[in-house]
Amino acid sequence: MIRVFVVDDNPTFLATAALVIEATPGAELVGTATSAEDALDHHDLCGRGDVDLVLLDHQLPGMTGLDAAAVLAQRYEAAATPRPVIVVMSSYERHELPTASLGWRFVDRFVPKAHLSPATIRSCWSAGAVGEAQVEGGTK
User: Fold this and answer.
1) SS3 31
2) Which of 53, 57, 113, 121 has the fewest Cβ atoms surrounding its Cβ within 10 A?
3) What pTM, to 2 d.p., does this model score?
4) What is the C-alpha to C-alpha distance for residues 67 and 104, in angstroms, rounded to an integer?
5) What whole-number distance in Å separates Cα of residue 56 and Cα of residue 51?
6) CA 28 – CA 18 distance, rounded (Å)
7) CA-to-CA distance for 101 and 106, rounded, in angstroms?
8) 111 φ, ψ to 5°?
9) CA atoms within a 13 Å half-sphere pointing along the CA-CB vector of 65
10) Quick one: three-class SS letters along 33-96?
11) For residue 9, what are the CA distances in angstroms to 35, 105, 108, 137?
């Protein structure tokens, strides 16, 4: 079972993501948050290995999705626990987003929100589980 946690400040996208995850065989939604700070406070993301895949919106109020990716990766490393696959999502294409952030090195995959589907969930999990960092449609 792929345990998925979604972080997005848009309630419509959270509901859509929940439906996509529900329609994905072998996946279950284990939690949601509307900000990076709320996600980092959530007990499922405390470095215990309770989450397999995190879908993070790039643009969140307060801390960005990239900042949260860095904190998550460091948290799991400190706990000596395999970290979840971290996917950053956006309404924008990857080339339209800032590239200077060091947070990108902690991201396993970038997926435009319009591409979210059961196949994308499975693909992100499979690619991340074997360490193939990618952008939807090609390697990052």
Assistant:
1) strand
2) 113
3) 0.85
4) 9
5) 13
6) 9
7) 10
8) -135, 125
9) 26
10) ECCHHHHHHCHHHCCCCCCCEEEEECCCCCCCHHHHHHHHHHHHHHCCCCCCEEEEEECCCHHH
11) 6, 23, 21, 25
From residue 60, give the alpha-carbon distance in Å to each of 27, 66, 125, 127, 133: 24, 10, 23, 25, 22
d(CA 30, CA 28): 6
32: its two tokens: 């949601």
pLDDT tens digits, one per residue of 78-93: 888 888 999 999 876 6
Q: What are the strands of the beta sheet with 134-135, ordered from one edge? A: 27-33, 2-7, 53-57, 85-90, 109-112, 134-135, 138-139
Q: What span, in angstroms and rounded, lies between the C-alpha atoms of 116 and 112? A: 7
The structure tokens listed for 4 are 């998925």
Mind listing the pLDDT tens digit for each residue in 78-135? 888 888 999 999 876 666 665 655 567 788 888 999 999 999 999 998 876 545 444 4
